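Database export, one record per block. Field names are fixed; values are copied verbatim from the stored entry.
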Amino acid sequence: MEKNSNELILANTRCWTDVIEGLKYTVKSWVKEVVEEVISEKMCDLNMEDKRLNADELCERWNISKSTLYNWEKDGIIEPLHLGGRRKIYSMKAILDAESEGLIKTEC
């Protein structure tokens, strides 16, 4: 009788060990998937923040005129990076910040 009891306990232990190993594998897979997704999103964000637009590209993105862009610069809505002379560019970080703060209406 005791032998059958020990065999049953051993069988149950093996069963639970298999379940636990399966859960470990599943959780590791989910964590790996989430981490890869987060890293991918962050890399995309970093690449976007490094990008810069000139005035024509920004006006096209926001569907505004250059005079409106100039007025928004004076109002502090967007701050250009000066390249010397009259040349200016706009960092994607500043653009995304203005859009996320609701200062700019975008079609996206």
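Remark 1: The longest helix spans residues 2-50.
Remark 2: The chain has two domains: 1-50, 51-100.
End of record.
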